[in-house]
């Protein structure tokens, strides 16, 4: 096989565009539409945000079958069709006046977007990088936050000046532009498929993979079940971010301030993903993830203060929660279960994390609808972070026990 240190980074670049479109635009910038569209249609925020819940549920379900689809068909063909469907369905939202049409389009967008989102992207990164895996993962998903930070105020401005219908057309165009490099540039899912070696190729590691690849994975273990619970509840906190524009308006600030909060959250998203990737390579993914959970809790406390100087900082720190779901979960999966079990474990973890995020989008909306406050959502977030820290210690302890048993045997 040929050793090529340039191609992996070029593949990484096109993956950045896919992450920016599938997560940064399709998900992270959706919050700016909640208030204006729900008010225009005369429905509750929770009712409208349900279309993103459906989107997330479908994208979660697609995560379970994405590896099988990728093994059966050319990924380039999958990519072209999924991007085309995603762009068209997003543009069609501009012509929707019925909430059920939004729900249908949410389902279509969810399935198509899932084919170029977290699961295939992490599989591509795994296939092209052995060294600096944490950094490569953080760079890719850092662009999802960057896209959200840049495009949220742009879309908010489009809504104010041109209306939410035109803003959806603009959103569809941005998705297409970000996906085009990956559609045009020739690459396979793994370096091996092109007769090349992944970046940082290690002979010993490849030998270990070949030795362990036929071992069966036991799903009924404390460590796996605890990790599943961690993935499910941790990502429920991310639902708050898309409601930050509504939160700002609920405590007397303007829509532009709300968009700024969302942008601050996305900026925190970007920086925290880069930080957690660097920390994972240096001190390990466990300590890196714990650090981000603590930072997120601090962000929640600052948001609850309601002070103009504090909520911007709080929104920025709150963005750290995305680093745990987007970067932490993939690197923790590889750390606890190994690369040989990654394709078995991570689709399930991704399904659960998306499922948690899906219900959170609607839950936070309805909490506000029935209490006229977002404080209950913030309190819930603090409780979830506490549980996640406890689960992290349980998983780490179980992992140490398993490793000791392997050494003895």
Structure notes:
The chain is mainly alpha-helical and 409 residues long. The protein has a single domain, classed as Up-down Bundle (Growth Hormone, Chain: A). Helix content is 80%, strand content 1%. It has 17 helices and 2 strands. The protein has a two-stranded parallel sheet. The longest helix is centred in the C-terminal third of the chain and has 34 residues. The protein is globular.
Salient structural properties:
Growth Hormone, Chain: A; mainly alpha; 409 residues; single chain; globular
Question: What's the short story on this structure?
Answer:
The chain is mainly alpha-helical. It is 80% helix and 1% strand.
**CATH topology, which one?**
Growth Hormone, Chain: A
Provide the domain count.
Answer: 1
Tally of alpha and pi helices: 17
Q: Per the principal axes of the C-alpha atoms, what is the gross shape? A: globular
Strand content bin: under 5%
What's the main sheet like? Answer: 2 strands, parallel
Q: Averaged pLDDT, please? A: 87
Low-pLDDT segments, ≥5 res: 206-214
Strands, total number: 2
What would you say the CATH architecture is?
Up-down Bundle
Which strands sit side by side, in order, in the main sheet?
1-2
Question: How helical, in percent, are the residues?
Answer: over 70%
Q: Structural class of the helices, strands and pairings?
A: mainly alpha
Regarding CATH, which class?
A: Mainly Alpha
H/E topology pattern: EHHHHHHHHEHHHHHHHHH
Radius of gyration equals 20 Å
Question: N-to-C terminal Cα separation, in Å?
Answer: 35 Å
